[in-house]
Amino acid sequence: ERKAKGLCFDWNEKFRSGHRCRKLFSIEGSLAEENDEEAQEDVEEVVEEVPEISINAIYGARTPQTMRVIGSLGRQGHKVNFLIDSGSTHSFLNHNIAKKNGLKPNCEGKFEVAVAIGEKLSSAGHCKEVCMTMQGVPLKIDIYLLPLEG
């Protein structure tokens, strides 16, 4: 029904290209009596960031929000095409490429990723501080593994 109306699956807003859902949050604390003279505890805001990946990143499509860069990955230094996508919130890598480059995922990092078309993909885990080089610049980043194409 929401799709037929062109609405976001999570919010009552029109879905459009480049749409980003507002961040979800919850506030934890306790209610205090108005006459309670005890010191009130600080209320802590907990922000739940829902990882998002654009459909362009999944299929390797080129759009004005994406940039393709050639670099190398892992200790073996295999050449890889990196798709830098401003529509994604985290760094993702095809799980098969990770395996070929000897990267071993930490299964504790498994989670679901919200895809721009409203579906969810399951992560195969994450790899911390992966060595990569982009345009001659060495980097170490955390990468989440997904079944990407392209």
UniProtKB/TrEMBL annotation:
Q: Which PROSITE patterns match?
A: ASP_PROTEASE (PS00141)
Q: Does the keyword Cytoplasm apply?
A: no
Which keywords does this chain's UniProt record carry? Answer: Hydrolase, Protease
**Which superkingdom does the taxonomy of this entry point to?**
Eukaryota
InterPro entries of this UniProt entry? Aspartic_peptidase_AS, Peptidase_aspartic_dom_sf
Alphabetically, which GO biological process terms does the record hold?
A: proteolysis
Which terms does the record give in the GO molecular function aspect? aspartic-type endopeptidase activity
Protein name as it appears in the record: Asp_protease_2 domain-containing protein
